[in-house]
Design brief:
The protein has one helix and six strands. Strands 1-2-3-6-5 form a five-stranded mixed β-barrel. About 12% of the residues have low confidence. By secondary structure, the chain is α/β, with parallel strands linked by helices. It is extended. The longest helix has 20 residues.
């Protein structure tokens, strides 16, 4: 019985950690930008319009401009969608290090 309880606690803990760190980046197209209020309206790939807000703690890569592709991670708080990370432009695949020849 103790093993089952311990296993249950471990599973709940793992699920909570997974939910906290499991956010995926969303891809969208910027349709409107308001730099003064640090917000932008985007259209996601499924056609949904969203208003995304950012602040000084948001990691912003690039300058948001209408028509640009944007990738972001965000969460809802106080009735707004707040970005924690924004990347403007195409995402480049990370180049892997060239294989070292065997010696």
């Amino acid at each position: 019985m103790k093993k089952a309880l311990a296993l249950g606690v471990v599973l709940v803990f793992c699920a909570a950690v997974g939910l906290a760190h499991g956010s995926k980046a969303t891809e969208a197209t910027i349709t409107k930008v308001d730099m003064a209020s640090k917000s932008m309206v985007v259209k996601t790939t499924d056609g949904k319009d969203m208003t995304i807000y950012w602040n000084d703690s948001t990691k912003v890569q690039g300058t948001p401009k209408e028509g640009e592709t944007v990738h972001f991670r965000a969460m809802d708080k106080d009735g707004k969608t707040w970005a924690s990370w924004v990347h403007v432009g195409k995402m480049e695949a990370k180049a892997s290090a060239p294989a070292q020849p065997k010696q």
